[in-house]
Write a structure and sequence with these properties.
With 391 residues, the chain is an alpha+beta fold. 49% of the residues lie in helices and 12% in strands. The chain is built from 14 helices and 13 strands.
Length: 391
């Protein structure tokens, strides 16, 4: 990947599609003899989608376009001119797309070993998407903590007035820095964060905020102030909330990262890496060649100790049932593993005969998992509470 100097502005475009859709389209073109058209790709994606609304001749066209644009950027497919707008759909519907040699190779791997195909695409993706590369490098330095604002009550309802913009800025900064105080958020990042919040709140002041309901007002503060200010302080090359969400989603699709807001000692969202790379991703100038996931074989030798430690921090008092989501959050962050790896390791422990050293008791969940997080499921049974007993 060509590297930019510090004086050059890095730009990138992250496709707003699922990684699985990219591999499925690659496989579809391979099954079509290595050649297809934009319209055939659109219809293929539409057929595989779970759309509840009636389809139209424009349905999925932006997804098909973004998939093919990225496959071309990754040098896996060669395409003709693709429709950028609905008005171009009819004239460019038959735009050709053909697999390159690398595309044929990856499609064959996906057919035989899908997991390996994800990893190969991840390596290519990192080396060709500067924004994603920068995000992965940042996660490998330490977890990224996001002090989300989710309610007007967190700032005070009186700051919704456009006459209180300075007060709003101070409230946002105080609220976010307080949440970040228990995390390794250096003081050198506090000043750029504070400055960015002030600038963005003033920009919002030129918009019409008074007409927004409470939810839209909070969403605007979160997406237009908090996320951009945090990304600025973290010196990432992108600062908009939409790109951030797509970069994070791609990282989760690749099982390269995960996040949780369930940590009992941290009132924020923690995003953490769940794999290693060769050469190490902390070297921002290196091109990645290999992915090393933190799977069950990685976690198993460390799991019992991590589970005991997490349980002792959550159970009040120790010996009582503890919130399983909180326990999972601590273990996943400490071991840098995916939630599904946590479930697999916990399931292995529960499937063995109880020993005097460790017995695990569970209860069904009384509440849904936190927004954006999944249930803990073992053998199709959901777990909401757990208790460890030992001699």
């Amino acid at each position: 990947m060509q590297k930019e100097s510090k004086d050059q502005k890095v730009t990138d475009s992250i496709p707003r599609v699922a990684v699985l859709q990219i591999l499925q389209v690659l496989h579809h073109i391979a099954d079509s003899g290595g050649k297809s058209t934009f319209e055939k790709v659109r219809l293929f994606l539409l057929q595989r989608s779970q759309r509840a609304t009636p389809s139209s001749r424009f349905a999925m066209y932006t997804i098909a376009r973004d998939v093919l644009i990225d496959l071309q950027k990754l040098q896996l497919v060669q395409t003709g001119i693709l429709p950028r707008t609905q008005s171009q759909m009819e004239s460019l519907a038959e735009a050709p797309c053909e697999l390159t040699e690398a595309g044929h190779s990856l499609a064959e791997v996906y057919k035989e070993r899908p997991g390996h195909a994800f990893d190969q695409l991840l390596v290519t993706w990192i080396n060709n998407h500067p924004y994603f590369h920068a995000f992965i490098v940042r996660l490998h330095q330490q977890p990224l903590c996001v002090p989300d604002i989710t309610s007007v009550k967190q700032l005070g309802s009186e700051v919704r007035s456009e006459e209180n913009l300075n007060t709003l800025s101070h409230r946002i900064v105080d609220h976010c820095l307080k949440r970040l105080s228990n995390m390794p958020f250096p003081r050198t990042k506090e000043e750029p964060f504070t400055h960015a919040v002030g600038e963005r709140v003033q920009e919002l002041g030129r918009m019409t905020l008074s007409g927004l309901d409470a939810k839209k007002w909070v969403d605007t503060i979160q997406d237009k102030v908090v996320i951009p200010s945090l990304l600025t302080a973290e010196e990432l090359p992108f600062t908009d909330a939409v790109t951030f969400q797509h970069v994070l989603k791609a990282a989760k699709d690749f099982f390269a990262a995960s996040w949780t807001a369930s940590h009992p000692e941290l009132s924020l969202r923690v995003i953490f890496s769940t794999c290693d790379f060769q050469p190490p991703a902390i070297d921002s100038q290196a091109s990645i060649t290999e992915v090393i996931h933190h799977g069950k074989s990685f976690a198993a030798p460390l799991f019992v100790a991590a589970l005991r430690s997490a349980y002792s921090r959550v159970a009040k008092p120790v010996g009582s049932y503890a919130d399983a989501y909180a326990v999972r959050a601590i273990v996943c962050i400490d071991l840098q593993i995916q939630p599904r790896v946590f479930a697999a390791c916990l399931g292995d422990l529960m499937s063995t005969d109880p020993t005097p050293e460790l017995t695990i008791y569970t209860e069904l969940p009384f509440d849904s998992p936190p927004p954006g997080e999944d249930y803990i499921e073992i053998d199709r049974n959901r777990i909401g509470l757990l208790k460890l007993a030992s001699s």
